[in-house]
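Q: Trace token order:
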Amino acid sequence: MKPTTFLPIVLATAVVVASNACAQTYPAKPVRVVVPFPPGGGVDFVARTVAQRLGDTMKQTFVIENRTGASGMIGADAVAKSAPDGYTLLVASPAEVLVGPIAGQKVPYDAERDLQPVTLIGETPLVIVAHPSVAVRSLQDVFALAKKQPGKLSYGTPGNGSTMHFAGESLNAIAGISIMHVPYRGAAPAVADLLGGQVPLGIVGMPPTVPHAKSGRLRVLAVTSSERSMAMPDVPAVAELAGFAGYRFTNWMGIFVPAKTPQQTVERLARQMAQIVRETQTSEKLLSQGVKPVGNSPSEFVAFLEDERGRYSKIARERNIHAAE
């Protein structure tokens, strides 16, 4: 073999060996896990649950850092601008990486270009609820009342351009009804007005509604996942209704890293997460909060995001959904 031919082969082999060695030694130092929401919320709970197990199984410290503000945009931006070395992770929800940008919210990053999907940790349904004073016990009752009294009913959500807003407008479109959207500045005020009867219906996340549903202060009519939730097995999914096949809106939690992070690192993180969420202890902990564990591969997560992006973009155009400025 000629020396000029041999040298490129040696160099290429050295690169592959070095890359594999890097992947095998990762993580060699503590890993920062950015949560773009305050401590105590659903995304924070999921992040802390999996970060602890990542640390145990990968023999390294995974440190939670809550970088809050601007509906998750500040934390997401911090990760997007971090070094692509696998030592900064983002545990994200739809708001900051998909729904917000689609609804026209101004963000200082391009989620598709600047963030690399690793794995979908899990997802939890939204719930459609009614104040007990409203004479409805099912979604069919809601549709009938909306048609009988057009323009009279309203539903509250945590805000314009939220996942809940998209879910509500999709209901309106498919059912051929017009229930007025009442946007709030977050879930807490929306739930407060639901409890007080100031707004008759609401679409909110599952965690803040569970105690009120159990006490009878709110009536849960349906969940918005494609199937019933193990946390509320007696509550029907919207998709069970005739004409609503394929209806699905969830709050999901996924891991992202800065774009151009080595693929070996991304794959290793995804494999480790898949193992963790399938552990009985971890899956039971997630399910206790209504989170259905997933733990898919990077390519599967990319396909999931593409489907989500297509659905939300279509609804935004057809229902003229815009985030509040």
Remarks:
- DSSP finds twelve helices and ten strands in the chain.
